[in-house]
């Protein structure tokens, strides 16, 4: 059991913020990718709504 906790502590230290400031850049990149992944398909459907109305 103590091996699991030791592993978690090591993982937590590995995830500590870096001093070079790349954490903010990585966070902004991830947020941008998630926003495009969520809003992209919705925008496509809304942009082609007239086509979908006439099709069905």
From TrEMBL:
Its main location: mitochondrion. It comes from the Eukaryota. GO terms for cellular component: mitochondrial inner membrane; respiratory chain complex IV. It is a single-pass membrane protein. Keywords: Membrane, Mitochondrion, Mitochondrion inner membrane, Transit peptide, Transmembrane, Transmembrane helix. The chain crosses the membrane at residues 29-47. It is found in: Mitochondrion inner membrane. GO terms for biological process: mitochondrial electron transport, cytochrome c to oxygen. The keyword Chloroplast does not apply. Pathway: Energy metabolism; oxidative phosphorylation. The keyword Transmembrane applies. Pfam families: COX8. InterPro entries: Cyt_c_oxidase_su8, Cyt_c_oxidase_su8_sf. Belongs to the cytochrome c oxidase VIII family. This is Uncharacterized protein. It comes from Sander lucioperca. The lineage of its organism: Eukaryota, Metazoa, Chordata, Craniata, Vertebrata.
